[in-house]
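Budget justification note: compute hours in this period were largely spent on complex prediction jobs such as the one shown. Inputs:
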Amino acid sequence: MRIDFSNLLSDRVGEHGLDPGFIKEYESKIIDFHRDLVSKRKAGELPFLELPYQDVSRIISLAEEVRSSFDAFVVIGIGGSGLGNVMLQNALNPVFYNELPKEKRGPKFYVLDNVDPEKLSGLLNVIDLERTCFNVISKSGSTSETMANFLIIHNLLREKGVNGPKQIIITTDPEKGDLLAIAKEKGFRTLVVPPGVGGRFSVLTDVGLFPAAVAGLDIKALLQGAGEMDKHTSKELLSENPAYLLAITHYLLNRDKGKSISVLMPYSERLYSFADWYRQLWAESLGKDGKGQTPIKALGTVDQHSQIQLYNSGPNDKVITFLKVEEFASDFTLSNEFPGYKACGYFEGHKLSDILNSAQIGTTTALTKKQRPNMCITLNRITAQNIGKLIYLYEVATAFSGYLYEINPFDQPGVEDGKKAMYALLGREGYAEQADEVRKFASSEDGFVLEV
Amino acid sequence: MRIDFSNLLSDRVGEHGLDPGFIKEYESKIIDFHRDLVSKRKAGELPFLELPYQDVSRIISLAEEVRSSFDAFVVIGIGGSGLGNVMLQNALNPVFYNELPKEKRGPKFYVLDNVDPEKLSGLLNVIDLERTCFNVISKSGSTSETMANFLIIHNLLREKGVNGPKQIIITTDPEKGDLLAIAKEKGFRTLVVPPGVGGRFSVLTDVGLFPAAVAGLDIKALLQGAGEMDKHTSKELLSENPAYLLAITHYLLNRDKGKSISVLMPYSERLYSFADWYRQLWAESLGKDGKGQTPIKALGTVDQHSQIQLYNSGPNDKVITFLKVEEFASDFTLSNEFPGYKACGYFEGHKLSDILNSAQIGTTTALTKKQRPNMCITLNRITAQNIGKLIYLYEVATAFSGYLYEINPFDQPGVEDGKKAMYALLGREGYAEQADEVRKFASSEDGFVLEV
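Corresponding output:
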């Protein structure tokens, strides 16, 4: 994995870049943070850092059972209990996986996150309930969306008379919460979200690993990759630590150069969902006290025809990270089907991946020329090991960014108000007071409304 | 359709909102723009405005033929020749459409936009080439990605000996371009991108309508909805014109209140791709001369567990538009499967859509309380007519925003540099000079690179 920071520096992008002296300047300042992090880790306060070294034999055997017993597998989870699952599935299984003939894949794979009735009815149209395993994931054991979807599915299974306890697997806190109590009452098997690991840092726990194993992914290689990255992100020296460099370059570009937006732009369909996972990690960890960059996902080359005009010529308020792949699992060599036409001739003899990666270099070139800071992470191939490395890199970078912004990257107090207002609307006990706020802030009466 | 601007105003969000006096202030200023727009329209300079009134009989009969002759339909197009197709398909057909049993749908529907070899090989794994119709769409007739994918598909069809001219339909400029010439040479049937309509304004031309008709959508209702919106967006009075209000509120919030980011957040899975279509429209039209808001897509409730912490407590630099649906095509009423558990009891008797829409109101309430400007567009149902209205609304708002920002909303000069650099890398004749720029701005040599 190659991480190229060159185009973040002032010798490439002028006043919009960082003076290369920032490394010397911050090398000593950062050592205090580093040592604090190391001591917290030793005290067991950062358990997400130890996840590469867990035993996954129980996950693998349970996943084997599910793979051989069911035609479809549905994760019921949202946020940190959904985004990581989509990311691993999309990154490591073929595009259009669910449409492959049965003999070329494991159980069909779905994540039911939203409480959109049309998504749920769409799902029910394409699965056979009796041949489907549901993995209900909620750290707290009370997430509204997850509980609502679980209630409906449980009801449907009961009506069909097929809710054998083997068909539902619960992933939740090992000691508390309603979902754990329900699992015990009904005899559902349980997996664990380790208490000290927050939802958005949980993809390398049972939350992400079990569904990945059901999907046939190599979760040992995933953890091995994460462990390899741990060696790099444990280094004290800023110039050698990729997570610290990722964090501090973004922090300084935000603080000093007005780059309030951080774009993650993979040039790979399979890596697009990695950007969704990153969006949660970055936004929910760092968006506090009026601080935090707004993370955006974009996709190359598709968004060259949608967003690049803006990135290139709009406000210079972004730092862009490209994710790039050198060698694809399959490729095509172009021949010139239509000799004599300028629009095709230059493709002859090139691989399709050459066009993709040349487009990425073209975009970098154009952005850099216009002094738009950008960087690039290149994977030799998309493998479980490399995805494990990427995950760990971004998790450590996020945690470290908390130090720089002087905020706690592990909480999310800003989502509580909205939840309370929703509880009030649904008549949940103890939230009557919030109804006044709803009337005050969300009423259409006496408002400025157009009917068209 | 109800458009609620209330929470953009200062009486709801304090200093971060607009003084309601803006309407009086801008009412007269805007009349000049309006009259210019009207006279340009009369002179035929804004042909996208006349699209609701076209004859679609040929599209419909060609689509009927394709529907009855093929098992799969693949759009080969990118940007304005892809995003609108995905948007219409996702908005108006069921979620998981391609996985439905054959008797419950038309041909499987795909959009091949990217030049990612793994996407193409994934597609080839799940379609039967001989039973697939390809619609190659490029306004210029030379879009790199589209031509590359077309070349490969054409080659595969030729190798199989099945490239009957009926299997490929070309949508391009009616008078010029390599794709048109190739179509003539090979005897492919053609559809038209009207010369005066830019790619991102072309969803209501053959570009979007033909694939929509193949997917079984009611394109007459789509146009009818657009025509209905035309009545509203043709009004001279700012306070009555939803497109002008949409444009000017966003412009003023950007210029005067630092809202550099515009989030479009549907609370509906089916409307999520509408946000992708909007992203292109807004970014590519307005991202010029250092101006333009950065459009972001988000999805409720999923992104409540990912982005709302940031939107609520991060920098107050966003204006958020919710898209909401009152009545869904299907719904579920929740019963309490697990009496005695607090995490479920409050759902009893509620529909799943109540939870979804209560979550939206909860989010609005919380954001407004924190002085984050937001607005809401509510559809009674997701119908072709309502989608037509939405499309037309946003297109006129975008065109009108061009006046406000004093830029041309119909060009995209900022994408040329990247293309030229790509051509240089691929050895296209006439671009050798650009190779120097690539070496200067995109080289990893003598750069700041970490191998991990």
